[in-house]
Amino acid sequence: MTDLAAEVLAGRPAAGARLIRWLEDGDARGRALLPRIHAAAGRAHVVGVTGPPGAGKSTLVDLLVAEERSRGRRVGVLAVDPTSPFTGGAILGDRLRMSRHALDAGVFIRSMGSRGAHGGLSRSTYDACLVLDAMGHEVIFVETVGVGQEEMDVVGLAHTTVILAVPGLGDEVQALKAGLLEAGEVIVINKADRDGFEQTRRHLELLLHLREGARPEGHWRTPLLVATASRGEGAAAIVDALDAHRAHLEAGGGFAAAATRRDERQFLSLARAALTDALLRGRGGALLAQVRDRSLDPYTAATRLAALLGGADPGVT
Amino acid sequence: MAAQRPLRVLLAKLGMDTHTVGITVVAHALREAGMEVIFTGLKQTPEAVASAAIQEDVDVVGISTLSAGHTRSLPRLARLLREQGAQDKLLVAGGVIPEEDVPLLEEAGYARIFTMGTDTREIVAYLVQWHRSQRDREPAA
After folding, report:
1. Count of domains observed in chain A
2. Among A2, A88, A152, A235, which residue's CB has the most CB atoms within a 10 Å radius?
3. Helix H segments across chain A?
4. pLDDT tens column, A107-148
5. Residues of chain A contacting residue B28, judged by C-beta atoms under 8 Å apart
């Protein structure tokens, strides 16, 4: 049997692609390789790109990939599209807008269905990110599904999050709800040739100004940039801002800290799932049965389940 | 869990025509059947499709062709995939393909050619059946 992890570390696309598939599918062979992948990861700059549906995320990512390539960097892209909650199927079309990179060996693009996750990513996006990192990609763009105000998992995953706004989508009101704008380290108004651009720009400037004023000295200052991705305009300034943010993070120790935070979250999430599964397979299974037949409320059941860890009596009657 | 994984299908168009109705209808039918459909652009080269199929690690590569040239471009794609170690992918094609070209394409590695007028249900049924047969062969993870 070939050593898939070694091939991933050597940057072979087919190996990385197969490992991502195993991780997405919950195949145990994938999990077994993750410790080696994780040990080799941690060098890549992970950049989230998010915004409302129709903001032009894929087109902008295509442009940013071209700009990063012109600076000589190897680039990975993870593009997440929604999975139908009804059929489990998905049409993953982000690649369509990135086809000019199809023959560039320095670019690896992977489409992912959200597969039931609701935070704008899929459950395995973090793991896929580790794979692209371990393969030697220096910048990884993570494009989320079109998001509203709460689907912001990407902020926890990325070192730098680019928030895309567009004129005429009612951003004035949406931005006031604050979810999106609070999160970004770089804000980009795309489709700058559209009606309503000036109004959107003034409004976002005001909101940013208020936000920056409330932040301490030395805090990253979020730039407001402008792009017309369909015409290929705006990429250089955005990549400059991404580089500046990376430098800012590195200077303050934030670059490594972001990976530590991701690891901590991943550990807690995996530990919760593993402990719950183990308990439910054992003596806790009776508690689930009681919740199902309504002889026990979920609150008491959860408390009793946790008490099993301390060797307590499960209290099954 | 692994047993329920969705089938991943890359749909691509080779050749210079810009007719997208057929491939779009097929894409939606496959999505309705619970598959993950990866769409690449129009006017793709065999090289670009092979690279995308490998990066996406799809189970199935489906090519739509509505212009002449398929007797060269389709075998070329099959050869590129084999050369890059991706011979495990199921190759199918559809569109305007004359009956007399079918043996040549089958010879080149295409498991099934869906000629004009094929009902999408037939395509779905074929892929579902193939997926099931693969699952039965795979060792439990």
Report:
1. 1
2. A152
3. 4-9, 13-25, 28-40, 57-70, 125-134, 153-157, 171-176, 179-183, 197-213, 235-251, 254-281, 285-292, 298-309
4. 999 999 999 888 889 889 999 999 999 999 999 999 999 876
5. 91
